[in-house]
Amino acid sequence: MTFSRRDFVKTSVLGAVAAGVGARAEVPSAGNGQQGHASGSDAPKRPIIICAHNGYAYVDAAYSFLKSGGDTLDAAIRVVKGPEDDPNDDSVGLGGLPNEEGVVELDACCMHGPTRRAGSVGGVRNIKNVSMAAKAVMEHTGHVMLVGEGAERFSVALGLPRENLLTDRSRKIWLLWKETHSDRDWWGPGMADPHWHPPAQESKPQAAVWQERIQRLHRRAADLGIEPEFQSAAVRRVLFPPTGTIHCSALNEKGEMSGITTTSGLAFKLPGRCGDSPIIGAGCYTDQDIGSAGATGAGEENIKVAGAHTIVENMRHGMTPQEAGMDALKRIVRNYNGDMTKLHYMDMTYYILRKDGAYAGVCLWEGYSPGHPHTFVMHDGILRSEVATPLLKGYSQDWPPMPTIPEDLKKDSVYVK
Description:
Order of helices and strands: HEHHEEHEHHHHEEEEHHHHEEEEEEH
Number of strands: 14
Structural class: alpha+beta
Number of helices: 13
Strand order of the largest sheet: 4-3-2-6-5-1-12-13
Helix content: 25-40%
Low-confidence stretches: 1-36, 405-417
Shape: globular
Distance between the termini: 30 Å
């Protein structure tokens, strides 16, 4: 039997939201998690590291450090510091895509399970390793969060170097956006506004709209001096401003846990915008008694459901990692009354690790396009990527919105996430 998307939503989502938010299950014994996520035939192991896909290259070394007795938060920082230091990774740290004024602003938070401490920084400029800045707030102050100029000065006082985070490449991408695309920015009512409506479609045929826009962007990219081999990737970032975040949770053999999330946030965002990544309980939450969770995706939506905290509390009350994450996703859906027109413009992925070693990766939509599912990275002695379990069938759409991609252009993987 075939279901339309509307049928799916009515039967699978809204019903679950109405009836399942308060559902509870008994805490499963080790080895009774979801299939593929610490399945019954393969008992949970420790130590374990779980993280977003952009941490893959750094997990193996961090796992060796963790297995040799290294601290769980230090192990997690070893993962996220990799993308922070990489000038070619524009999702976090050095080379992160800037705000609408061309300034890179970074956010991060961390929680150390063994000592039950937390640290956070938001809207930080000129400091690439904000993961370490968040840890420094935790270790060297009586506060939990520092923001803006104060967080920058504190980081420098603790020995973190002040440097220009806008690389030549990211600067040229910002110029390309500023000159050609800034009429589609983050000003205006958000999707939560009752008066919001989807933008009017172009009067021209969609294929013609796309061809003209892409050709114009390519010409301007060449004029700005963007290297030929990177011009298509630069055009893609302008057409679809990315969100850049990495989360990592680590669990050692003694059952100690920590979590950390770091980000450059939304590309071309309003100056001063902080998403969920520096918010304890939204972008990251660790409870030494229960587990750890973190998020990447639509930060504003995750803040409103306190996603990471919700997930950990769900596990406290007996939900499996996958059930706990699905419940948080259903709360996002409920906030929009199941309105697919709005929900299509957002996405969310949760990374969940329970103290006994059971884990899960869940997401709002299957991915960005067919063949490109949401994935996460696991290491429990074997380094691997796994596909996250989606709540909704189908694929998210980019925001700010663009015309539907014609089928002939979908063949070019440059324009597909």
